[in-house]
Design brief:
The chain has 5 helices and no strands. By secondary structure, the chain is an all-alpha fold.
Length: about 140
């Protein structure tokens, strides 16, 4: 792995983490209601998330960015278009299907799937863009 690829991976993870922070900052209360939480739980979940969860999210995004970068390299020359198309395929084939299945078996509201899968789509697309720009 080159230094440029590593920089692209870190940039992608940071960008993805920031997208997630903004996404759930805007949709946190709506997500809590989609979970069917009681009023107290809605208020608690709309507040500051636990530090451990934030750290776990960043580590997970580093892993995702690393795997996405590896996929893009195997597809061909690294560029923004190729990286974002790869990100969209990964989202559709693995993330959307997993989130939708898990939420269906848990009998959760379809809105929860839209919010959570939408978050991961935005994260993967911004990761693809970062890998395409920085990770060449």
């Amino acid at each position: 792995m080159t230094g440029t690829a590593l920089l692209g991976i870190v940039a992608a993870a940071v960008a993805g983490w920031l997208v997630g922070s903004a996404w759930y900052g805007l949709l946190g209360r709506t997500r809590a209601r989609a979970l069917g939480s009681e009023r107290e739980a809605v208020e608690r979940s709309a507040g500051r998330p636990p530090v451990g969860a934030l750290v776990l999210a960043f580590v997970a995004e580093l892993a995702m960015a690393t795997m996405l970068s590896g996929i893009v390299v195997h597809v061909g020359e690294t560029n923004v278009r190729r990286a974002m198309v790869s990100a969209a395929f990964v989202w559709f084939g693995f993330v959307l299907t997993t989130v939708a299945t898990n939420n269906a078996f848990a009998r959760r509201a379809p809105l929860l799937t839209v919010i959570d899968a939408g978050h991961w789509m935005a994260v993967l697309l911004v990761m693809g863009a970062a890998i395409g720009v920085v990770g060449r």
